[in-house]
Amino acid sequence: MRVAVIGAGVIGLSSTLCIHEQFQGLVPSLELELYADRFTPHTTSDGAAGLWQPYLSDGGNLQETLWNKETFDYLLGHLHSPAAKEMGLFLLSGYNLFTEPVPDPSWKNIVLGFRNLTAKELELFPGYSYGWFNTALMLEGRNYLPWLTNRLTQRGVKFFHRKVESFQELFSQGVDVVINCTGMRSGELQPDPELQPGRGQVIKVLAPWVKHFIITHNMKSGIYKSPYVIPGSEFTVLGGIYQHGNWSEENSAQDHRTVWESCCRLLPALQTAKIVGEWTGLRPARSQVRLERESIRQGNLQGEVIHNYGHGGFGITIHWGCAMAAARLFGSILQEKRKVTSSPQPRL
Amino acid sequence: MAAPKVAVVGAGVIGLSTALCIVETCPSSSVTVLSAQFSPNTTSDVAAGMLIPHTYPGTPIHVQKQWFKETFTYLFAISNSAEASEAGIHLVSGWQVFKSTPKEELPFWSDVVLGFRPMSKAELQKFPQHQFGQAFTTLKCDCPPYLLWLEKRLKATGVQMHNRKVADLWELHREYDIVVNCTGIGAHQLVGDKKLFPVRGQVLQVHAPWVKNFIRDGDGLTYIYPGIHRVTLGGTREKESWSLSPDPSTTKDIFDRCCSLEASLQEAQDIKVKVGLRPSRQCVRLQREVLSQGGVKLPVVHNYGHGAGGFSVHRGTAKEAARLVVECIAALQGSSSRAKL
């Protein structure tokens, strides 16, 4: 049984690991391969700050809320393991700030110690009159992706550095199941008008005195269009750009100014922070994550595809729940194949 | 009296902050800081500088709370300004955990720090050996940055700083009108205060930049305090020990205790070991005294004996010391005008 995963961001690598962990023992003939044209540190996941935090509203999508929770609980369980530092996993507390009262988020009981901000705390953030404090997790892509890659290599998964042009290309090579984790460029394999880039630009600075994440929200503009500061293990990420439909992967001088000025207003001490980098990434935005099976038939080529893309700005937040859901879909494919092979073949 | 000459002896957090308060309160005075040690060689440089008060048995609680509140408010404003990183002042959140529920669940300072509340069950799961905990956000003063920032502000107001070992306060009576004694543990010898005793603390300063929250065991012996560049792991409280040499078995013990609170510290790098002697006393000695010899008087203001709580109350006690200096100046002016009659 040959399974090919396309995509080596957090979704592709974790889906591969989840499937291997669950099925390698059960399906001795399982051959897992991973195809991608970009590997760490050049994937979208590598540029993300790595903070576990879903969007403010789940839009009624309970499924995604459950996947977020599964991811948080899974990571929390790994916090005390010796691998945590290598994974880039650690606890981080911080602030979400608003200019008006807002309903509590779907994830308030998933994170640790969620509470409203006191008046004194709000004095730290002039212009904001309401907010939350909680402890969440950081999972830095720059560490997590290499860690996942090592685990997969140890397990004998084969990696192929090449761009896959079509699902058929893999089916014609004898692949039985494709796991499509192609993120932003899924549309190149199969057009999907619902998938749009949510362009983001971040500035990386050295500001080691910042020990909290600070995420501001402008309910009118929308998510990630308001300044945010996220301290990592090596540098701090300043952001606040979300441009729907913008495919440019180039850093923009204007966006740099927007991010720099708004973050320095939020945290005046940042003015003395040294800038060490700048990065633009395209969040693979979609009304909801596409996580479903599809049977692809073209001529005499046939195969199963499990789509797992469209995680917007919450890929790291939701990744493990989705990997497990993809593994479940894979399990049902296996079930069906077994039924087919075990039922008596009519002899003509 | 024109430009009273004030000598502040000691250049740790108490000496420097007291000198600054004197300059702020009596701008006409001429202040000089004299010390055998300056940053990075003071006791303050070893301390993590966390604003979590130590309780002095001999001082009324409302006074300690006032000192802490003044200090917290002062540093809160700096942490919120563009100078925060230079001054080394930053907010840090975390947990104080107890193996058994303490008698006093609400310490006197709980409404001064930010967001103080009991830990949830989910949060306590991270500490299986602990039954109870408190979560809050407080401030940390990193040294040397904070002391260097104080020195810079002092120099900007014209305060002179001299490296000088003062063997006897009386030796200053010709050059200075008032002496302020901020010598910390040095007061044991300098003024022969037998009520002052060292409580030796050994700490490790490690590179573990992924540790962003503080963790403190309520027994005060084991703590993890993330600073700007290093995390301070502690510690010990050895009464009457005067040794400034790091002890290797203590180092291992501190490291093990901290790893049991935060497993990822096993990966900490570049471990530096430091020792400081907390200048401990039943209560901070914050009072005036007049030394006299052969008809000559020397007013002294004492401000020492802050033990484990120096950073937590430094600004509050510095302001009180400055008020006492003002009283000394008034007394000198009173007596000098009487002398003119």
UniProtKB/TrEMBL annotation, chain A:
UniProt enzyme class: oxidoreductase
Reaction it catalyzes: D-methionine + O2 + H2O = 4-methylsulfanyl-2-oxobutanoate + H2O2 + NH4(+); D-dopa + O2 + H2O = 3-(3,4-dihydroxyphenyl)pyruvate + H2O2 + NH4(+); D-serine + O2 + H2O = 3-hydroxypyruvate + H2O2 + NH4(+); D-phenylalanine + O2 + H2O = 3-phenylpyruvate + H2O2 + NH4(+)
Enzyme Commission number(s) of this protein: 1.4.3.3
Keyword field: Cell projection, Cytoplasm, FAD, Flavoprotein, Oxidoreductase, Peroxisome, Phosphoprotein, S-nitrosylation, Secreted, Synapse
Binding residues annotated for FAD, in chain numbering: 37-38, 44-45, 49-51, 164, 182, 312-317
Pfam families: DAO (PF01266)
Species, as recorded: Sclerurus mexicanus
Protein name: D-amino-acid oxidase
Cofactor(s) demanded: FAD
Binding-site list for D-dopa: 53, 217
Similarity field: Belongs to the DAMOX/DASOX family.
Domain FAD dependent oxidoreductase: 2-329
Alphabetized GO MF terms: D-amino-acid oxidase activity; FAD binding
One biological process term in Gene Ontology: L-proline catabolic process
Binding residues annotated for D-serine, in chain numbering: 228, 283, 313
Keyword Nucleotide-binding recorded: no
GO-annotated cellular components: cytosol; extracellular region; peroxisomal matrix; presynaptic active zone
Main location: cytoplasm
Subcellular location: Cytoplasm, Cytosol; Peroxisome matrix; Presynaptic active zone; Secreted
From TrEMBL, chain B:
EC number from the UniProt entry: 1.4.3.1
Signal peptide location: 1-19
Keyword annotations: Cytoplasm, FAD, Flavoprotein, Oxidoreductase, Peroxisome, Signal
UniProt keyword Magnesium, yes or no: no
Domain FAD dependent oxidoreductase: 5-324
Any matching Pfam family: DAO
Subcellular localization: Cytoplasm, Cytosol; Peroxisome matrix
Enzyme class: oxidoreductase
Binding site for FAD: 43-44, 166, 183
This protein's record includes keyword Signal: yes
Cofactor: FAD
Single GO BP term: D-amino acid catabolic process
GO molecular function terms noted in the UniProt entry: D-aspartate oxidase activity; FAD binding
Reactions catalysed according to its record: D-glutamate + O2 + H2O = 2-oxoglutarate + H2O2 + NH4(+); D-aspartate + O2 + H2O = oxaloacetate + H2O2 + NH4(+)
Function: Selectively catalyzes the oxidative deamination of acidic amino acids. Suppresses the level of D-aspartate in the brain, an amino acid that can act as an agonist for glutamate receptors. Protects the organism from the toxicity of D-amino acids. May also function in the intestine.
Entry's family note: Belongs to the DAMOX/DASOX family.
Protein name according to UniProt: D-aspartate oxidase
